[in-house]
Amino acid sequence: MRYFVTGEQHRKSLLNALVLMFLGYVALLWLSNGMMYFHHMDLTPKSVIAYYLGSEEQFTQPRSYQGMLEVSHFHMFSMGMLVVTLTHLMLMTNFSTRLKIWLSSLTYISALADESGGWLVRFVHPLFAYFKVASFLVLEFSLAALIFVVAASLIRARRHLREVDPD
Predict the structure, then answer these.
(1) What is the structure's pLDDT at 154?
(2) Rounded to two decimals, what is the model's pTM?
């Protein structure tokens, strides 16, 4: 984090490149997250209900408590680490404080909402499928926005570095 706070991103092109490569990796993670969602469901509440509650037409069983708990256990940790890393990188950019607060809050809330959406569909009421679809879309949008904001800041720093020190 010192990297952003002290302005080293303007002087350290190697570290800048490493963070950009990390963002490329995160972009692939973002893409695979969407692909995994669409492997099981689409953006219709009916598909979400069928996935979590099972479907006689497709001969699928409802998601089990244990299976959902195992997935949530892993997701809560991994998404937490991803979100804290991206939001910390974003906090060190030159973008407005309002954008930083808004985007950080949106990302944390949508990550929790996305994870809880399946539980709500499965164990509370099928109409929470609308919530699940909306939270997935907001999470994907907010993660993409974080990737973009941090990458834009780093690319801007690289351009500034070339202007100041063309060697």
Answers:
(1) 87
(2) 0.84
